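Annex B. Sample input.
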Amino acid sequence: MSVPMNRGYRPFLSIVLLLASLFLSTWRVEAQTSNDDLIHDNGAWLVFLGQGNFASLYPALRNLRWWFDVQGRFIGDSEGYDQGLISPGIGYAIADKTTIWIGYTYLHTEPFGGKNFNEHRIWQQLIWSTKFEQIGLQSRTRMEQRFLEVGSDTGWRLRQLFGVTYSFNFKNKLGLALYEELFLDLNDTDWGANTGFAQNRFFVGPSWKVDKKGRAIVEVGYRNQYIRNEVINNRMNHLLSINLLLNFN
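Annex B, continued. Sample output.
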């Protein structure tokens, strides 16, 4: 159940949330950058994420959802790597704002100076989202079981994403998007996962609604990726991220 809010406070709340997210992310980046052993790199990510329901096949299936995620990741440094990702899933809307999902991810990695390898993941996730006038909020909690060709252990990983979007009054199609996602490894594996903090991702950038209903959105912005590594130096990637988001629900 949504909590009623006075209209006069909604723009103020939006600005506070945006500034708080920027402040926390800036503080995190500065703290990590102080590590002399940190390797910085540049690159680009291309992200396509589509989701919808099955109502067109049969109206009673409106709460049954589909998910399809495709990504191409490119790192420019000689010590970097390229990755490609395909991730289909299926979900069910258990409430107006809450959806549960199960899916599969195939990830191909080409490390510089090493052998290419593949990773297979099974994942489960819970997504909650809501909107107050100009501001949208989203939380995504995902559990992953990871299987790599370079080892025999199953890696368990928890991912928590928080997202904030803001639509500007002066241009209904123009907005701002902020995402923060924390990765935690829940066990040690023979292929290199170590229990504890594993990675953090932060994205900020303008968004544009391609159509009036907002079913197609393009986001172009900065993505910061910090990766902890127990064997070699920690890494921070500074990425141009281009995201195409389709929603047919």
